[in-house]
Amino acid sequence: MIWADSTSGRLLEIVDRRRADIGLDLSGLSVLTDARTEEDFVTILAAARAGAARIIAAGPLRATVRSAQVEAMIRRASAEMGLESRIDFTETVEPAMARQVDIIAVERQSSLIKPALLSMLPPSSVLAMLFDSRGAVSGGLDLSQRGAFDMQVAAVNIADPESGIAEFLAPLCLLQMRQAGLLPEQSRCLLLCDNEMQDVLETGLRAAGAQIVTAGSLDAVSQGPFEAVILAMTPSREYRLDLNAVSRLPELMPGGVVVQFWGDIDRSAARYFSVEIWPPVHPGRGQMGIRLSALGSEPVVDMRSGALLAAARMIRKDERLHGAERGKRVLATG
């Protein structure tokens, strides 16, 4: 849908509207990000429309169809829209490039999260997480294991009404329920939620006709039955539904399904107890069970623009406190 919106011009309208709404201004700043997926294309376009001085777009060592499409679409956008940002596509981020970076914008599985690369960045650079940072519970971005990098981190709380993403959470959950074969208006659901998503999810699901029982943990639930358990709990290094919790699910939802919206479930235990989970393939530790792009371009634009804004604010604040040294930079050609 993002490619279609780009071709039609709708994506540019969404990006520009969001930029104006939140006041995103990256003038004078250099941004490093991936160039692998259609979501990465949104990041590059948002940064360029916000006036970034330079964008370093890092593609895979071996080009894929999607990465080639990202580059082709950006070059087309640059020609048609007159993007003023200098956009450099590269397979390898050289030290000269890294030393110019103000913002490194990364997804959960970014190829840029490498200690060797992060160590080359200026101390003043900011890591912009293009997802809710509470989902960073494993791998190089695990915020509880920060030994690999020492830099400021900017991110978006997806349940914050000002993020622009909160309004999409209930429609996203409803879409996931339908993908799992559930009809919300015919379903009695247990919503397991221990975070700010609770009100927006509960309100949206009820408005769609679902019967909702809400609890902060499975321990607080003693009676069923339910057609579905909607898991929307803050990710952690531990399973939010572990072996003991999963063992109770056949009784609470006989023949039902766990909709993994956010937070992890012990899938080995689920297989043992014949508990069905949607999506059937593990989305990855800490990741949402359905991508924002499932609802189109708008939530993706809101997420990426919001993360860039949070990073830019950190940099501007630092400049006010310590002087605008970035303004004295000369962009390297490397």
SSE class: alpha/beta
Q: What is the assembly state of the chains in this entry?
A: single chain
**Number of helical segments with 4 or more residues:** 11
Q: What is the CATH architecture assignment of the largest domain? A: 3-Layer(aba) Sandwich
Throw out a few tags for this protein.
5-stranded parallel sheet, 2 domains, alpha/beta, 334 residues, Rossmann fold, 6-stranded parallel sheet, disordered C terminus, 11 strands
Summary of the model, kept short:
With 334 residues, this protein is α/β, with parallel strands linked by helices. The chain has eleven helices and eleven strands.
Strand-helix topology:
Layout: H1 2-8, H2 10-22, E1 30-34, H3 38-49, E2 54-58, H4 65-81, E3 86-90, H5 95-98, E4 103-106, H6 115-118, E5 126-129, E6 152-154, H7 166-179, E7 188-193, H8 197-207, E8 211-215, E9 228-232, H9 243-252, E10 257-262, H10 267-272, E11 276-278, H11 297-322
Helix pairs in contact: 2-3, 2-11, 3-4, 3-11, 7-8
